Every structure is written in structure tokens, then in C-alpha cells.
């Protein structure tokens, strides 16, 4: 068989499925044994739930544990349902306590309770401590296994603490400096410790610490950690006492999760929370049908507008030819503005209080876009039909683009102000609103210019 290092993943998946269908477990074991966990994870994402459960049992013990830890929480949940209770309990124990929280968010409540009961006392205390924080807070994603030091300690004393915790601490590269009441007074890096003399005090090396409060939003804290390019960030309570550490890998994981949700909702679907090929068709349908029903109801506004101006269309039938162009251009303009501002919100570039500044900028942007497109529309329509029709199309594009940009730019800000996910005010909703309002503008301008 071709070496796994050079074999195409599609060919490997096909081979696995063929061996699975033939019930050739011996050959399956031989194929899977040499594969590293990093190659097995994308393979698991392509298989069905039943195939994953069977193939997982064929993996060597060490490889199986590593694969489980690398899988997305929804796939971990699927796998737990196909394993025996003893295997499930051990896999859950082997996870880091902050990774357990991702999994507990995916499994049914009854299974979550059973998994928690099966933990050793120390691990159950750590996991339960994280569960006490709000659902979307950074407290649920921080690590409780870290190394700390005191300002009065020497470099040698701190390095001794690092070596003692080297096996169980999640990060040792960034070390918070505490006072006697566990308040964070600074931060020291492992690099600085290694380059300093052993009798130098930590107070001489430490720098100001950038922290986040445990109850704060997970996405905001993760974004701050990534923007500051920190390997780890201390998480504190309201009195600035250290309660955990957010590592950069966990911060990136949070941001990837949030951005996947935003991208899905901006497209008018619910996030799948798992790889596409491992998602059941029924789940795909459920993720889309609600939004489609809502948008279908919203689209009736467009139909109502067309019925109101039916007499106008009958008098100048050429107007109907430009309806797709106008509503399509308006929808696209609004979508572009919404996507840009939603992204700016996620990055912290704008806040809800910047409403008027965003509105002004989008009015100007939409106006310039409308002027450019309107000029082109006026020229083409004038040549093809008449100057009057060209004037109608040009002015409508100017107005529609200006309106669409303003609406698209402001809706995410309004959503954030009323504590709603900006992605909920997604592109399809903006398109529906702009379609109806754009048609009203179109026919009112046509009536005025054509004297209908």
C-alpha cells in the first residue's frame, strides 16, 4: 500500500471505506496503525458516526487518546455514544479540564452529569469551578493549571517552581507575578528568567500584565489576547486576583469558533458546529429551513410592492426589465457594508457609540458607489431605450446604493447595542429590506420623471 505520508487523503478515505464495507478489520488495523493522529483527524471528519466508532476501537491506545483530544467537540460527543462506559470515562478523564468544557457543551445533560461523577475528586473540582462561570465567558475557557511566582522570589526560586509544574502546567512561557493576596502585579516570561542570573529578584524582571476579567465575553478576551500577541493572558476576578490563564491556542480556538458562527449566520444559516461531510443531512436541513421560511415571508414585501405599482409597470413595461438589476445591486451593496462593519465590530475597530460616524461614512461610500453605477446605468439605458428611462435608472441606482450602504452599515451596530449577535442581522435580511424599499424608490422616481 502507498505510504501514508504521500497518500492522498481522498484515496485513503476511499480505502478505509472499502475495507470497512468488506469487514476486513485486520487490513483496516494495518492501514491505520502507522498513521499519525494529525492524519487521522481529517479522516475521522469524513466518516459516518458508525464508521468512526468502529475505526476508533482499532487504533493503538496512545494514538486513540491523541486523536480524541484533537477532534472537534461535536465529533467527540458522537464518539462517546458509540463507546462503552469505561472507555468514555477514561477519555473524559484524560482531557484537560478546559477542553472538557467544550465537550460538556455538546453532550446531553444526563451524559454530562454522568461524566462529571466519573472524574477523580481533584479533576471534578477543577471542572466544576469552570462550570460556575457564565456560558459565553472567558472563565469557562481558561486553564487552571499554570505556574505563578511572587515579586520577592528570585529567578532560581521561580525556575524551581517551573520545573516542579512542568508536567501538569498547560503553559510555563508566561508566568503571572502575584502579591500575598494573589493579586496580579506583573508578568514575567520564561525567556527573561532563563537569561537572568539566579539571584536576581522577579521584581526586577517583571512587566505590566495585560489581564481579562473571568466574567467578560470569551470572544472579546480572546481577540485581545491575539491582538496583543500574547502567549498567555492572566484571567482575574473582580478584585484582580488570579483565577486562571488563557493560552494563545485556546484564544485562537475561540476566535475560529465565533467566526464560523458569524460566517454561517451572515449567509442565512445556523452554524453546523462540525465538519460538513460528517454532518447528517437532517442537520443540514434544520440549519437552513428556519432562515429560508423567515426570508420567504420577508420576500412577500417585494411582491406587495410590485402589486401596488402594477399599473405603473403596465404603462411602461420596460421598467420591469430593470427590477432584477436594481434589487440585486442594492442587496449586494448592503451585504458588503454589513460584512465590513460586522468584521470591524468583531475586531474592536468600531463600537455601538460610533453609530453616527459609521452612518456618515456609509452614506458617503454608498453615494459615491451609486454615482458611479448610476452614471453607467444612465448611459446604457439611454442608448438602449431613452434618456428618460436612463435618468430613472441612474437616479434609482444612486438612491438605492446610498440607502443600502447606510442600512447595511448600521444594522450590525444596532444589533450590538441591543445585545443581539450582529450576524443575526445577516445579509439575507438586509437584502429583503433593501429589495422592498428599493422598488418603492424606483417606481416613485419613474412616476415623477415619466409623468405616470
TrEMBL record:
Signal peptide: none
Annotated InterPro entries: CBS_dom, CBS_dom_sf, Mg_transptr_MgtE_intracell_dom, MgtE_N_sf, MgtE_transporter, SLC41_membr_dom, SLC41_membr_dom_sf
Regions crossing the membrane: 289-309, 366-385, 391-415, 427-450
Domain of life: Bacteria
Major place of residence: membrane
Localization, UniProt: Cell membrane; Membrane
CBS domain mapped to chain residues: 142-204, 205-261
Pfam families: CBS (PF00571), MgtE (PF01769), MgtE_N (PF03448)
Membrane topology: Multi-pass membrane protein
Keywords assigned by UniProt, alphabetized: CBS domain, Cell membrane, Magnesium, Membrane, Metal-binding, Transmembrane, Transmembrane helix, Transport
CDD domains assigned: CBS_pair_Mg_transporter
Entry similarity comment: Belongs to the SLC41A transporter family.
Biological function: Acts as a magnesium transporter.
Assembly: Homodimer.
Protein name: Magnesium transporter MgtE
Biological source species: Leucobacter chromiireducens subsp. chromiireducens
Gene: mgtE
